[in-house]
Design goal:
496 residues, Amino acid/polyamine transporter I
């Protein structure tokens, strides 16, 4: 059977950008920039973009496009003992999709509630008390929060409808869900610059503190942000690239995707801190006292700031619609990466049936995050899946391609189909820069875990986090222990 194709290069780029741009662009990048030296953070961030983000994204686009397979088939073709690496990556993607959809469910509830602004009196009490109905600790599960569960079901129905027929439905959905949040961010930016105190927020956001560059933490934060925000290590970009023509441009697409993602992050930062600057002025506190990251920014601080604006109801709708459309592309890209791998392995199976099975399984896995202790479970699983799972996949991936297959051979292939020609810096980055950086990230995280268990959670809760990484990792070990015969696809062995 002929492989499904993206209808155009523009549609592929929209899909790749949509996968890369997600909630982290709103709630993680601006806060990291503020936390690690303001404008000075952009120096390590841009260096990480060039030496880590673009090379790894190019790698994933190249092997997916060359082999015309999802992550499992691609890694198996490169080396038989790495077949399980694809299932490891997709296992982590499945775990992240399960809880990522729950965050989108919270967003749905806030979007529905925006016309009445029920959080005006106390945004923190509304989020933790009314929406999450959170318990005192992870040990007190408290039963299912049925409102969140219903919203989660609606989210998964939307995800299923987006991916049920592969790139054909994905290509239609992204025509709306990728441009819309960018347009909405510009609407919020225009509103932000009309607010008193917005400039104070911008100063806090971009004012450089050059001394921060002397800290290893800022460089590691920049590297991790680039790695996570570009959806590297999930198997998603490999799957998306497998639906391109074998001779399509690779280097240009990688650069456009990576630069677009970073540009949207910068735009989001100006929106976020413009609004926070206004909130600081209205409440008589400093911007430092209202800045936050993660759920605290999107579901407590930002709603409170919006409630202080004229036309608060309208701009609350715009903000949460922005979050929802940012999240949906990233969520269904994770699911589509899994669907592609399963269909490649079992081509006779129906795509809609595969999509339904994956969505139903992820919905079931996400139920634990809809309990009244769900935020605690989400925090634990997210910490281990992102800091250990994705980075380990990325490290193994680059070792496989750069060291075993050959970074020079990959560069030759990329340059043969690309308008932008990659220099020897690309080989140097894959061979000598990225592996030690990712290994260092893993080592530092392990040291941090040994010194102080994450979040003060009990041992059984941390074991759940380790299992979220360990169970998918077993797939890699199983494949390495019992490799199948090498699969030679599309001339990979003959590439010069």
């Amino acid at each position: 059977m002929a492989r499904d194709r993206w209808s155009s290069r523009a549609i592929f780029l929209l899909a790749a950008i949509g996968s890369a741009v997600g909630l982290g662009n709103i709630w993680r990048f601006p806060y990291l920039a503020y936390e690690f030296g303001g404008g000075a953070f952009l120096v390590p961030y841009l260096i990480a973009l060039v030496l880590l983000g673009i090379p790894l994204l190019t790698l994933e686009f190249a092997i997916g496009q060359k082999l015309q397979r999802g992550a499992v088939g691609t890694f198996a073709a490169l080396h038989p003992r790495f077949r399980g690496l694809g299932w490891f990556a997709l296992g982590i993607a499945f775990v992240i999709a399960a809880y990522y959809a729950v965050v989108m469910a919270w967003t749905v509830l806030y979007l529905i509630a925006s016309p009445s602004l029920p959080w005006t009196a106390d945004a923190e009490a509304y989020f933790f008390g009314e929406v999450l109905q959170i318990t005192d600790s992870i040990g007190d599960v408290g039963g299912i929060n049925w409102t969140v569960l219903a919203a989660l079901l609606a989210v998964w129905v939307a995800i299923y409808l987006s991916v049920c027929r592969g790139v054909r439905t994905v290509g239609r959905v992204i025509l709306l869900t990728v441009p819309l949040p960018v347009l909405l961010l510009f609407v919020l930016l225009v509103r932000a610059v009309t607010l008193p105190g917005f400039l104070d927020g911008w100063v806090y956001y971009i004012r450089p503190e050059w001394s921060a560059l002397l800290s290893a933490d800022v460089w590691l934060a920049a590297a991790s942000q680039i790695f996570f925000t570009l959806t590297l290590g999930f198997g998603v970009m490999i799957a998306y690239a497998s639906h391109k023509d074998e001779t399509a441009d690779i280097a240009g697409d990688s650069i456009v995707t990576a630069v677009s993602n970073s540009a949207i992050s910068l735009l989001a930062g100006f929106v976020v801190f413009g609004v926070l600057g206004s909130m600081a002025t209205a409440t008589g506190v400093g911007v430092a006292d209202v800045a936050a990251s993660g759920p605290g920014l999107s579901f407590v601080v930002f709603p409170e700031a919006l409630s202080l604006m004229p036309w608060a109801e309208a701009f609350s709708i715009v903000f949460f619609l922005t979050l929802l459309t940012l999240g949906i592309d990233s969520a269904f890209s994770l699911v589509e990466g899994i669907n592609v791998a399963i269909h490649d392995t079992n081509p006779a199976w129906s795509r809609p049936v595969i999509a339904l099975a994956v969505c139903a399984a992820a919905f079931a896995a996400g139920i634990v995050f809809t309990t009244r202790a769900g935020l605690y479970f989400l925090d634990v699983v997210d910490h281990f899946a992102t800091n250990f799972g994705l980075v380990t996949v990325g490290l193994l991936e680059v070792v496989l391609v750069a060291w075993l297959y050959g970074a020079g051979r990959l560069r030759t292939f990329v340059n043969s189909v690309s308008d932008v020609q990659l220099g020897r810096w690309f080989v140097w980055a894959l061979v000598a820069v990225i592996p030690p950086v990712l290994a260092l990230l893993i080592v530092l995280q392990v040291i941090a875990e040994v010194r102080e268990p994450y979040g003060g959670y009990p041992g059984w809760a941390l074991a759940i986090g380790w299992a979220a990484v360990g169970v998918p990792f077993l797939a890699f070990l199983a494949g390495a222990a019992r490799p199948r015969r090498r699969e030679r696809m599309d001339g990979i062995a003959e590439t010069p």
